[in-house]
From TrEMBL:
Organism of derivation: [Mycobacterium] manitobense
Xref: PROSITE patterns: PROKAR_LIPOPROTEIN (PS51257)
Alphabetical keyword list: Signal
Domain of life where this protein originates: Bacteria
Segment forming the signal sequence: 1-34
Identification of the protein by name: Heme-binding protein
Spans through the membrane: none
NCBIfam families membership: MTB_hemophore
Length: 125
């Protein structure tokens, strides 16, 4: 009788071992699937320091652009001392005649626009 009980024990042990493995696998894969998503990236703060950082970057890039484009630099320099109500019109006419300049200046100013939209600050002309 002893030989008849041994195969049963082996089968029971095998089933128990397989069950333990299956359970461990289910727990491992189930917990991996239940991991929370990482939090969304936190946008930069809407602080005076962040505004200063953004504007200094825009100013730096504008300076570089004007230095590398003397005709554009000359135009904007010529506006010094002009009545404010005339400056806007002259800039509009110049940018309409020079769409590539308009696009470059818009690209340079985009971080400022993004900051103002994100933080609810008024947009400057």
């Amino acid at each position: 009788m002893l030989p008849a009980t041994r195969p049963g024990r082996r089968t029971a042990m095998g089933v128990a071992g397989f069950g333990a493995l299956a359970c461990a696998f289910a727990i491992a894969t189930g917990s991996a699937g239940a991991q929370p998503l990482p939090p969304a990236p936190i946008p930069p703060p809407c602080t005076a320091a962040e505004l200063a950082r953004v504007m200094s970057g825009v100013t730096f890039e504008t300076s570089n652009y004007l230095t590398l484009n003397p005709p554009v630099n000359d135009f904007f320099t010529s506006l010094k001392g002009q009545p404010k109500n005339e400056i806007g019109e002259k800039v509009q006419v110049y940018l309409d005649a020079n769409p590539a300049v308009r696009q470059e200046l818009q690209r340079i100013r985009q971080p400022s626009v993004d900051f103002r939209q994100r933080c609810g600050a008024p947009v400057t002309p």
